[in-house]
Amino acid sequence: MNNPILPLSIVALSSFFAAFGALFLKKGSSNFSLSIKGILKNKKLILGLFFYAFSSVIFIGALRLGDLSLLYPVAALSYVWIAFLSVKYLGEKMTAAKWAGIFLIITGVTLISIGG
């Protein structure tokens, strides 16, 4: 792979959409019903599934452009996005341990990206 910036950016974007998928699945879980009718009426659940599917399509596009061993760790950024989205939209609290985890994830993704 000559220039990894484009596929790395695409995977980062994919991880952002995956985080929104998780957020909407969480929001939809409060009204979850294990029936076809219940699932089809649950707009947040459907939106979460859509974001996950869209994220996967984007990720597949990135895989065509780069090495899996370099790109896949960048998908871990979804943990970072979801931490911030959970605070903003679900009222969850950030603890020192969560901040340390975010720092480690970003450090690891950076090291893998520059080492590729």
Could you write a compact summary of the structure shown?
Helix 1 packs antiparallel against helix 3, helix 1 (5-29) packs parallel to helix 5 (77-90) and helix 5 (77-90) runs antiparallel to helix 6. The radius of gyration is 16 Å and the shape is flat.
Report on the architecture of this protein.
By secondary structure, the protein is mainly alpha-helical. The chain has one domain. It starts with a helix and ends with a helix.
The number of E-state strands comes to 0
Structural domain count: 1
Largest sheet: none
Radius of gyration: 16 Å
Label the structural class: mainly alpha
The number of helical runs is 6
Distance between the termini: 9 Å
Ordered list of secondary-structure elements with their pairings:
Elements: H1 5-29, H2 36-41, H3 43-65, H4 68-71, H5 77-90, H6 96-115
From the structure above, extract its key features:
116 residues; mainly alpha
